[in-house]
């Protein structure tokens, strides 16, 4: 059985991705591998953050460590340049 994920894109679009062939393959996939797949398949820039439930996904982590499984939903957020938090002119 193929493992699929729902991905909510940064512009409100939703897509179901065929991620891998089975649960064994899923155990080896990293967040970075998922990010590359989302960027390619959804044709978006790579300046995104991914969120599962309420956690921001760290690129070096395995998907399994977040409890991601077949038909989980991943949300993507655009990372905008700028900032200056806490500084006042």
Automatic annotation (TrEMBL):
InterPro entries: Ubiquitin-like_dom, Ubiquitin-like_domsf. SUPFAM superfamilies: Ubiquitin-like. CDD domains: Ubl_ubiquitin_like (cd17039). This is Ubiquitin-like domain-containing protein. Residues 30-83 form the Ubiquitin-like domain. The lineage of its organism: Eukaryota, Metazoa, Chordata, Craniata, Vertebrata. It comes from Pogonophryne albipinna.
């Amino acid at each position: 059985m193929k493992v699929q994920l729902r991905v909510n894109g940064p512009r409100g679009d939703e897509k179901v991705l065929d991620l891998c062939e089975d649960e064994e393959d899923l155990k080896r996939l990293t967040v970075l591998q998922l990010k590359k797949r989302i960027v390619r398949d959804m044709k978006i820039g790579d300046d995104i953050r991914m969120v599962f439930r309420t956690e921001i996904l760290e690129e070096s982590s395995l998907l399994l460590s977040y409890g991601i499984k077949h038909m989980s939903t991943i949300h993507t957020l655009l990372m905008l340049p700028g900032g200056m938090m806490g500084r006042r002119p």
